[in-house]
Design a protein that fits this description.
By secondary structure, the chain is an alpha+beta fold. The chain contains 16 helices and 21 strands.
Length: 452
Amino acid sequence: MKNKVYNTVKKYNMIKESDTVLVALSGGADSVSLLHVLLNLKDEFGFEIAAAHVNHMIRGDEADRDELFVRSLCDKLNVPLKIGRFNIPEISKKTGESEELCGRRKRYEFFSETAPEAKIATAHNLNDCAETFFLNLARGAGLRGLTGIPPVRGNIIRPLIECERNEIERYCQKNGLSFVTDSTNLSDDYTRNKIRHSVLPVMNEINPSFFSVFLRNTDSLKEDMLYIEKEVNRVYDLIPDKKKIDVSFLLGLDRSIRNRVLSKIITENTSLCPELRHIDIINMYLQNGTGALMLSSDFTVKIEKGFLLFKTKKNSFKSVRIDISSEDFLYKTPYGEIELVLLNKKLSDLKKNIKELSLDNYADYDKIVLDSCIRTRENSDRFAFVNAEHSSSLKNLYRDKKIDSEQRKDKLFIADSAHILWSEVFGTSKYGSVDNNTKKIVKIIFRRNINA
């Protein structure tokens, strides 16, 4: 296996002399073998090696066991180690992400912060590639999704990407390497595990050389993909105005290239990721010579006088930083104006002047003055009512309040980097609320435009 890893590193130019390689070390067989084989190659390539481990605090004692194992292993091998501990269940509740996505994000953030200039080596192998292929196939991914996991992505390298899992296990056995087993990998509760335990064994039964054939096929698909992308970029560069394109020019392109050019134009100019159905609709409009498609509240694709037009709403609005350090704050958005008025009153004083107290639009100055902004909705947003124990996703709250999808896009919020502090629809959240410790109160006044 050492020779195979050596050839993979050379083939994809993964590591250069004097590089630092940070091994993402979970403690499983894959990452332990990766650390071991790279230690045996480091003098040959002339790189430095270190390791990083993340405890996601999901599996309780088992996660702590993995951390202790990794510490012991790195001490034994004299490898510098950094440990990150993140309460992923708690963080994911706040962000609205799944635990899997949240864990992955925090993991790579930690790796980058630990060694910003390092190559990050992960232990993805050929079996992982095959699992990803079938997952993407089931989800309807395009050509890129069917090429498996890339051997190199930025500073992330995958030296085991051409090694089968049984090769890795044999390597561990041959070299007397101990490792830990994640119990969640043994369960079929996760879709990837179903593919691992049910689909891949059948493919191996049909063809005992399945993984070798799979590797050749994905290499071929990558070559095809690179050629197509090269052609797409060539055609894209021929378009002088990316917001006004001759329909006859687009119809003269092969549909495969045209679809990708349209997708690239939308992505490059709007940061949106168009779905295949959107591209199909635009193709239909191109054939018909008429039609308009609103991809978002700020972005429309339209056929007009022989041209495909990409129009961005002139008064589109994303966010503005709040500054109420010295005086009242007034900001006009496309949807209305928000005024923040400093009352310089305590809660007790406020209660005296309000017969039926409703603090939905009052906030604690000290809770919102730092690092806060006015903005529209983000995908991961959650809202916590003042007396609620947990936050709820805005999607569910809007559904319960029967606010349709178009109206949701323009609703305004005051938020800091971690929480929504105030919502146009739901008022002040628990994170911005006035309480008995409040020293200074801000009144939030929102006047929505009649036509917004």
